[in-house]
Amino acid sequence: MNVLELINVEKRFGGIVATNNVSFNVEENETLGLIGPNGAGKSTIMHLIIGIHRPNEGKIKFLGEEIQNLPIHKRIKKGIAVMFQHSRPLKRQSVLENIKVALLKDKISIKFPKDINKKAEELAKKVALQDFLNRHSEELPFGVIRRMELAKALALNPKLLLLDEPFAGLNHSEVKEFSEIVNSIEKQGFSIILIDHNVKAVYNMVDRMVAIHSGKVISIGTPSEVISNPEVKRVFLGEESSNFLEKKDNISDEEILSVKIKSLKYNKAEALRNIELKVNRGQFVSIVGLNGAGKTSLLKSILSLVKYEGEIYLEGKALHNLKTSEIVNLGMAFVPETRELFKYLSVEENLEIPMHDLDNKTLKERLDEVYSIFPKLKERRKQMAGTLSGGEQQMLVIARALVRKPKIMVMDEPTLGLAPIILEEISKILDYMHKELDLTIILAEQNLHFALKHSDVVHLLEHGNLICGCSRKEFSEKIGEKYLA
Amino acid sequence: MLGKSKLIIVFIAIFLITGVAPWVVSPYIVGVITMAFYFSVFVMSWDLLFGYSGEVNFGPTFQIGTGAYVTALLNLNTSLPIGICIIGGTVASIIAGLVLVAPALRLRGPYFGLITLVSVFLLGEMITIFAQYTGGEIGISIPAIITTNQITNFYLAWGFSAISAIAMTIIANSPLGLILQASAQDPQEAESLKFNITKYKILAFSVSALFSGLSGALLVIYLGTVSVSLVVSIAVVLQIIISAIIGGRRTIIGPVLGAFFIILLRQWLQPLEQLSYAVVSILGLIVLMLLPDGLISIFVGKR
Amino acid sequence: MNLFWQILIDGFIISSIYAVGVVGFSLVFGTAGVLNLSHGALLVVSAIFFWFFVSNFHIPLVLGMAGGIIISVIVSYLLFIIVINPIDKSKKIPQDEKEVFVLTATLLWSMIIEEILIYFFSSNPVVAPPFVKGVLKIFNMNITCNEILLSLSSIVILILLWLFINKTRTGKILLAASMSHDGLAISGIDLKKVYITLWGVYGILTGVSGALLASFLGASPSSAGPLTGLAFSVVVLGGLGNITGSIIAAFLIGYIQTMTAYLISPAYTPIPAYVILILILMFKPKGLFGRF
Fold this sequence. Notes:
The complex is a heterotrimer.
Chain A: E1 2-13, E2 16-27, E3 31-35, H1 42-50, E4 57-62, E5 65-66, H2 72-78, E6 80-83, H3 95-103, H4 116-126, H5 142-155, E7 160-164, H6 172-186, E8 191-196, H7 199-203, E9 208-213, E10 216-221, H8 223-228, H9 230-237, E11 255-266, E12 269-280, E13 284-288, H10 295-302, E14 309-314, E15 317-318, H11 324-329, E16 332-335, H12 347-352, H13 360-373, H14 375-379, H15 390-402, E17 408-412, H16 420-435, E18 440-445, H17 448-454, E19 457-462, E20 465-470, H18 472-484
Parallel strand pairs in A: 3-8, 3-9, 6-7, 7-8, 13-18, 13-19, 16-17, 17-18
Antiparallel strand pairs in A: 1-2, 1-4, 4-5, 9-10, 11-12, 11-14, 14-15, 19-20
Helix pairs in contact in A: 3-4, 3-5, 4-5
Chain B: H1 4-19, H2 21-24, H3 27-53, H4 60-77, H5 82-100, H6 111-129, H7 131-134, E1 140-141, H8 150-172, H9 175-185, H10 187-192, H11 197-223, E2 225-226, H12 228-231, H13 234-247, H14 253-268, H15 275-290, H16 296-300
Antiparallel strand pairs in B: 1-2
Helix pairs in contact in B: 1-14, 3-8, 3-11, 3-13, 3-14, 4-5, 4-6, 4-11, 5-11, 9-11, 13-14, 13-15
Chain C: H1 2-32, H2 39-57, H3 61-89, H4 98-121, E1 135-138, E2 141-144, H5 145-167, H6 169-177, H7 181-185, H8 191-216, H9 224-238, H10 243-264, H11 270-283
Antiparallel strand pairs in C: 1-2
């Protein structure tokens, strides 16, 4: 019998189709992996199932009953539970109290049920939390919080449990610990949907997999079937056809950037520790790693967009006490993952903002220069940035970074959520910037093939640690395969 | 919660110390403290809504004022017994709140705060427009008086304040309080734990309105007079909010401390006349910026 | 027929002054995300100082107005330096409660200004002398030249503001700040400078509108609250942070108030704005025109 059934579900946000005709089912006692790269539409599907969004078309059936129009709390009462990736637990309360909340009935009452402490303690034991009962969530590491969130979901006694990226942000030992716990609860008479962008992490844990890309289901089947599907391979590994691009021959051995980060913490969770990175002038350096590995944190530190403990030097000048704008004015440019475009301004105005301190003549020349690299942007120069397609927006972000004629370009996942054909275009632009404009480039990427294709040096960032730091050939021999599946 | 037992000690201390006031201080100060008790209930009710369900109410005086004015008008224009007038005022305060303000509880963002602020302006305008009934700016005096005995009045206020504090502390530490805090922290997650959060927010709002309205009604009967500057104006709203923040929001008892601090400070600064309001506001701003956890954090540490 | 023209013209005059009075509030919210509940107080500050300079020192009106504007700019910067910036930077105040702290602190700020003004200038309303004298007869109605001048000045100021924001580099940077702060930082622009410009522009804008207000309706320290309420109603009606929306909403509310005054009773003038605001907040909280 089907516990959950999605039938031709479609969700649009404005003009953007987030999920397109998605259908799949979850059987009783089954663990289903819902996989797909960042931006594929996994979260939207999860939100549709629990009721944060409602579908524009299609049906969602839970135990045979249509639920797509019910509010969240009614669906939960029917037996769906969810563990969010980014939760905000009660920070002034203890772990025990946090679990107790989940055990309460949706009923107004002044007295706690008598056995609630005992029940909460039992649940805590199930997820190995017994030593943390009286600690406050604010002071606990990520891994413990994640387990507390799991205990809360289990407290609901679900028939279907959704786990949203349960391993994101966890370190090695935490991942191991958490997968053991998930394995131990698996056979307790309910179904699980395990949502993850990391095929490797869930491969051994699930009975079946559904692979999603650009809001569409691209493959359903056993893990081995899905993983050998050519489209899945292409989506997860990137385009394999194109070989490594030729290396530039004139890289100097003069150091342009040196990064030493002792530690970077968000509250109590450590995102980076003991990072050392050196970049030579003219080099193309890639930092690869999965979602949550700390890539964005590393790049944001270089730009002083986050606070960290450590020292960073650009051409011998200390950056760690400077503001972002000062660093940019020293010749660093940044292409952020979140793009940060001025979406209600026109394309041309977006390009003019970084040139606010230039005279009109230089400004015009620079505009012409970037338009010659991005002819599409010239066509659309009067259009509002927010109305551009994803690929065009990405080009605009790169162009905006280029107009200040930087020495070094720092790019965070420029390929995120873009179609293969656009990747090809962006790839050409990166190559042009690297070889013709002689830029030093630091690229953070999830898409390994894309990164390998360009790089002189590749680093792997895993759970806040930088490993390897070798040529692309060495990297693909040593790590390449392990990185993926 | 850290220092919960310390909070209870502070609580008992405040009420024991103030309880002997009529026998040690001048009758004038006894009158001031009686006011402070009613005022402390305004502040506690505000804290229940803000501290536990995370909603900023810029219009506590909409509830207080409605409660006070309806009680006064009932007493003035009908021959109903005082008790019924008080109940009438309290019920009117809750209903007015539910009709006008509670719908905004569905919304996220600053909208609830905005709508409550507007409700105060609206009430103020209404009172001015219907001046033939409400006395306009000047206000009205009413015949009803429970007792003229100052000590009885003092203990009435003392008891009312203590009962309100106990009731609200129980609510804050009950399953209800926990669910409210969960909804304030992350509404989506609270709903995903099966809670219909609007229901709880409306309840919290109603409880807050009940105590504010009742306190407003009792205050009118105690003073025998009501006016905009006493129970409606934005200056009163600010005093309530400052008291809660100065005392220590999210503790119920901190606000009582804050209420006393503000009322006594105002009394002490009275020689400055008009400027005393400005000084209290400046002081409030300083505490707000430098000690955001309030005076109570001095006693029980950071929460 | 006469009544129709009366409403049309009076409504236009009051609406244009409202529009100028509230755009600053909208600009600050859009750019810095600050709902400044001391907006009304700032209008009153410049209005009263304008009146004070003119009536005490007998200087030309324009000089007095300049004085009022300077004071308004100073108070605007003080608000930024003493209140807004410290809260923004504070580590003690939890991030998710900062909005409440800003609202409360600006409300307190408003109270402080109001009380200090009452202390020095009493709470009596003041009316600045008219900029020009004389009366015009249009469609059988007498309209003072001063009112026409004020209304036209308001329109000119709105046009200048529009040109500043949409046509100058500094203006575009302010506009961009309302869309992405990080985007500005990585464009090499120091956010602090953006804020300094913003609060300066805000001070000037509010200073000018305060002076217009003083000459048209007059002002008293206790009008600070209601003026903030009005600004609020207009800005929420137009969509928070949407400057064009605010201007349209100012005209809507201005005309509704004028109609209430003429068709029902002048005493009821403030009510419709509040009722509309409450209805909007309940049913269409993003305002009539949304963001941008």
